[in-house]
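Here is one record:
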Amino acid sequence: MNPRTLGKRIVIGAGILAACSVWASAAPAPKPSPAFLARVYAGLNAAYWAGTLPASTVVAIGTLPQGIMANTTRDAAGVFHITLDAGCNIIPNVARLSFFHEMAHIATWEKEFNPHGKYWRKEMHRLADAGAFDEIW
């Protein structure tokens, strides 16, 4: 990975997060249907994880605390739940970045306690090297 590119990615990510509070005050965008979100998840899972992430994962649009773009939890039955904040993910490329970010959490869930630790970062680098962000960055 080119260090100059990595720095650019960090700056872009910080800019998206800073803009989140501005977007949250904008007029609400129509929420994608649960079926649409499930298709996006399944497509990304097939394309970048060879279908190895759990198909049972539930994806929803919701309201998260200010500055939180997305969140992933796992319930007692072991089902993952990804919530994309409605205010922060109104631009399709931002929502796509949030999907990848949260799906990387699922991919590394059992590997480390630190949610943004070395395994998660390695997974994000793998996605970048695989071209996941080429149309976004």
Q: What stands out?
A: Residues 3-24 form the longest helix (22 residues). Helices lie at 3-24, 34-49, 92-108, 118-129.
